[in-house]
């Protein structure tokens, strides 16, 4: 195993290891050496990640907890323009003194390497299908143009004629109904706001 000492995410814990109750707080800025995330959006290599880390000495190891903030960049999964989103994640893991099957992380060479813990938290927070905006209309399937850029584009509304008829009926009905009551409503009527 390589020494954690060279990792930019490594923190020295010699002064609190095996001292239950000891606590230290660190704030560090890491220039990400290896991208976090393999999808269309990721915290890229060279991006800045800010970490606030709390180290607490426990009997069986060092509890590493904290918050990471940075920015993920990539492209909209619908219209392919460049996008970026803030990354704000919390993490907490115990780094054990003794290698055992009960733990996933260990204190080595008097250091804890937060990298895998931060990486897991960041990667899990990234959207699987990021979009530039929630209602991004995507690309024109024929021309490949970005629909949001086309001035005369209006989203196609899918109108079910049955709901249209019901809409007129319901406005009369609700005017006569006491607030909160839902007379004669079947579960299907939940769609009336559509
Ligand atoms: Zn988009």
What does this structure look like?
With 194 residues, this protein is of the alpha+beta class. It has two domains: 4-125, no CATH class; 161-193, no CATH class. Helix content is 14%, strand content 30%. It has helices at 115-125, 161-176; strands at 10-12, 23-31, 41-42, 48-57, 61-75, 82-96, 105-106, 111-113. The strands form two sheets. Strands 2, 3, 4, 5, 6 and 7 form a six-stranded mixed sheet that branches. It is elongated, with a radius of gyration of 26 Å. The model is unreliable at 169-175 (pLDDT under 50). Zinc ion (ZN) is lined by residues 76, 78-79, 81, 131-132, 136. The site of zinc ion has 7 residues, from loops.
Provide the succession of SSEs: EEEEEEEEHH
Molecules bound to protein: zinc ion
Mean pLDDT: 84
Q: How many E-type strands?
A: 8
Spans with pLDDT under 50 lasting ≥5 residues? 169-175
Shape: elongated
From the helix content, strand content and strand pairing, which structural class follows? alpha+beta
How is the biggest beta sheet arranged?
Answer: 6 strands, mixed
